[in-house]
Amino acid sequence: MDPHELLPAGERWAAKEVTRILGAADISARWDWSGNNNGNGEGVSKPREHRLRVVLLPSEPSGPGWGLAASTLGTTVVDRVSAPPAVYVFYRSVTSLLSRSQRRSRNLSDPCFLGPTSRVLGRVVAHEVAHAIAPAQPHASSGLMQAGLAPALLTAKHDVAIDEQWQRVLRAGLSQLCSERAGRPAPADH
Ligand SMILES: [Zn+2]
């Protein structure tokens, strides 16, 4: 998840938040940290193996093909041709959102920094993972799948969840992805 080691102690906390949010939608997530060693920052979600890469980047990339607004928190790249799909989350946008919402600047040496940052990161990742599973589904009117991801929701100390309709969409989307995978021949080993 964190090939640039922006938040080395926080990635597992963030992953725990993602696992909790997806778990509330009856989707179990499993994390494979081996991708961190080769810079791919790979996360793996199950069941029946639908794999996603989750990558924490310092800031949103500019340049052709991205077209992201400043302060975008995260984005999903789903390309059915080249697997696996990827979720990118942008560290600087997350920390500046936290600074704004708490009206004070954040210092990395502050031990209070890690928990809230990891929680926000986890929520942004969960939102983007949901988009990766159901890319055609529009945003919800409540819960974690709302458009724009309100700072109050991301930083809330209480648990937040994906609304029920989106949870159903996610379960259906995941079974579809898994059945598509089952119907495809295994990729050749080069
Ligand atoms: Zn969204």
Give the arrangement of secondary structure elements.
Blueprint: H1 11-24, E1 42-45, E2 50-57, E3 74-77, E4 86-90, H2 91-102, H3 114-133, H4 151-155, H5 164-183
Parallel strand pairs: 2-4
Antiparallel strand pairs: 1-2, 3-4
Helix pairs in contact: 1-3, 2-3
Zinc ion (ZN) is lined by residues 127, 131, 139, 147.
Can you describe what's shown?
- It is a single chain.
- By secondary structure, the protein is α+β, with helices and mostly antiparallel strands.
- The chain has one domain (11-61, 69-177): Collagenase (Catalytic Domain) (3-Layer(aba) Sandwich), CATH 3.40.390.
- The protein contains five helices and four strands.
- Bound molecules: zinc ion.
- Zinc ion (ZN) is lined by residues 127, 131, 139, 147.
What low-confidence regions span 5 or more consecutive residues with pLDDT below 50? 37-47
Distance between the termini: 25 Å
Class per helix and strand makeup: alpha+beta
What is the overall silhouette?
A: globular
CATH topological fold name: Collagenase (Catalytic Domain)
Number of strands: 4
Integer-rounded radius of gyration: 16 Å
Ligand species: zinc ion
Mean pLDDT: 82
How many helices? Answer: 5
For the largest beta-sheet, the strand count, sense and barrel status come to:
4 strands, mixed
Helix content: 25-40%
Series of H and E elements: HEEEEHHHH
